[in-house]
C-alpha cells in the first residue's frame, strides 16, 4: 500500500531532526535560555505573559526570517514542547484574566499572542503532515497500531516527548525506520492538535488535516483502480470491460477497508483523541467521498442492464466480499457522522442480494424458454444440459453466499409453474417442507432442466431413442453433481435416486430397442424349428444393430454398462440355440454353410462390443417425426 500510494520527494522532518547531518543546525540562530512554565495559578500573570511573548514572537514567521524558514518541531523538539506548554498556559491565563479582570490590556495582548501561536502551530501541523506523507501512509499506521495494541486506546498515548522517544528506543530493531518516523510524527501531530483544539482553534487544525489526508485516501483509491463511474457509462460498456472493473474492485476493496480506511481511522483517532466529536467529524469528512465511491460500485453494477452468464457469479463475488468486510466497515465507520457510508454499504449489499435473486430466476426462465424442439442426433447429451450443469456446478461453489441470499422459507410455487402436474405433486419429490432452501432451489432448477429435456425427448424419431436420450442426459447430470459441490448441496439421497432413474431409462431403452431380438430366441429350443428361429433372429438383430449403432452414448461407464447388459440378455440364449444346432449337424463347418445361420456367438459378442462406437456426433437436429405417446414422463 505504501509503494502504491506514496512517492516522497523530500525527507521527513521527524527523520531529519534526529540526523546529525541536518542542513539547519541549532547555531543558525541564538537560542535564549529555556523557560520553565508551571501551572498559571502559581505564577504572576504579567510576568508569564511577558515570557510567553518572547517565545511566541521568536517563532513568529511574520516578524522573523529565521522562523519563516525553520520548523520548530524540526529544529528543536525540546523547545517545541516548551512552546506547546506555553500556549496551553497562555490559554489558561486568558480564562483567568477574563474571569477577574476582563478589561485588562494583558488580555488583549494574550489574545494577540494566541492568534500568532495558532498560526505558527497550524503551519507546523501542515508541515508535519505534508513532509511525512510517506511515513504516515495507512499501512505504516496500521502496522504501528498492531505493534502497540496494548496502547490502542487513543486516550492511552503519552503526550510527553521524552516518553515517546524512550518507547522508540526500547523498540529498537523490532520496528522499521518508517514506523519509527511514523510514531514520532503521530506524537507531534497529536501534541499540536490537543493544543489547538483545547484552545478553541479546532476548525483551523481540522481544515489542514482534511486537505492533506483526504488527498491520501483519494490518491490511494485511484491507484487501486477505484474510479467514479456513472450509470449511463456502465451500461454502455462491453461486459468484458465491466468485468475487468469488477475484478479490480474485488482486489481493491479489501486493501481499501483493512489498510487505507483502517489506517486513516487509527491516525485520526490518535491525532484528535482530545475530542470525540472532532475526530469523528474529521474522519467522516476525509473518508466520505472515497468510501461512498468504493461502496457504491456494487450497487452500480447490480443496476446495470448487462446480460451475461457470468454476471451472477460476479454479483455473488461482490456480495461475498461485502458481507465479509461488513463488520470491519461497521466498526471503522461507526459514528453518526459516517452513517451515510454505512447506509451506502448496506444498500449495495441489499441490491446485490436482489440482483442475485433476479439473475437466478432469469437463469431458470432461460431453461424454460428454450425453444428448440429437437433432441440430439443419436440421443446424446443436449447442449442445454451441458450449459445448465456447467452453470449450476459453478454456482454450487458459492454455497455460503447463496445460503444468505435465498429466503429460508423458499419453496417452488406449484400453481404458477409450467411444469407437468405429475412432477409437482409426486410423493417422491426432490424437496419437502423441511428441505433447506438452497437444496430445494438447486433441486428445483435441475428438475426444470429435466422436464425440459422430457419435452425434447417427445420429438425423437422413435421410442428407443427417446429413452436413450433421457438416460444419457440424466446420467450426465448425476455425473456433474458427483464431481462438483452440488453433491454436498443435494446430498447422497438425491444422487442415488436420480442414478436409479437413469438406470430405469436404460432398462426401458434396452427393452424397446432389443426386446424383439431377445424374444426371437425362445427359451425352449425344442419347441420351435431352428430355421425359423435363426432366420427371425438374423432379421431382428441386423435391423436393431443397424439402427442402434448410429446412436450415441458418450459416457464410457454408461456405454459399457449398456453393452454389457444387452450382451447378457442376448448372447447366452443365442449360444444355447447355436450349440444345440451344432450338436445336431455335427460340425461347425456344416453349421456355417447353412443359409439360416449367419452369426456365431463370438460374432454377436464382437458386434455388441462395437456398439455405439460410430455415433459420436451430438449436434442437435430436428426429428422427422414425433412420438405420439411419450413414455418418458417418469422422472419421479
Automatic annotation (TrEMBL):
<keyword id="KW-0268">Exocytosis</keyword>
<dbReference type="GO" id="GO:0006887">
    <property type="term" value="P:exocytosis"/>
</dbReference>
<dbReference type="GO" id="GO:0005546">
    <property type="term" value="F:phosphatidylinositol-4,5-bisphosphate binding"/>
</dbReference>
<protein>
    <recommendedName>
        <fullName>Exocyst subunit Exo70 family protein</fullName>
    </recommendedName>
</protein>
<comment type="function">
    <text>Component of the exocyst complex.</text>
</comment>
<feature type="region of interest" description="Disordered">
    <location>
        <begin position="17"/>
        <end position="40"/>
    </location>
</feature>
<feature type="region of interest" description="Disordered">
    <location>
        <begin position="140"/>
        <end position="160"/>
    </location>
</feature>
<dbReference type="GO" id="GO:0000145">
    <property type="term" value="C:exocyst"/>
</dbReference>
<keyword id="KW-0813">Transport</keyword>
<keyword id="KW-0653">Protein transport</keyword>
<feature type="domain" description="Exocyst complex subunit Exo70 C-terminal">
    <location>
        <begin position="247"/>
        <end position="609"/>
    </location>
</feature>
<dbReference type="Pfam" id="PF20669">
    <property type="entry name" value="Exo70_N"/>
</dbReference>
<dbReference type="Pfam" id="PF03081">
    <property type="entry name" value="Exo70_C"/>
</dbReference>
<dbReference type="InterPro" id="IPR016159">
    <property type="entry name" value="Cullin_repeat-like_dom_sf"/>
</dbReference>
<dbReference type="InterPro" id="IPR004140">
    <property type="entry name" value="Exo70"/>
</dbReference>
<dbReference type="GO" id="GO:0015031">
    <property type="term" value="P:protein transport"/>
</dbReference>
<feature type="compositionally biased region" description="Low complexity">
    <location>
        <begin position="140"/>
        <end position="155"/>
    </location>
</feature>
<comment type="similarity">
    <text>Belongs to the EXO70 family.</text>
</comment>
<dbReference type="InterPro" id="IPR046364">
    <property type="entry name" value="Exo70_C"/>
</dbReference>
<feature type="compositionally biased region" description="Low complexity">
    <location>
        <begin position="19"/>
        <end position="29"/>
    </location>
</feature>
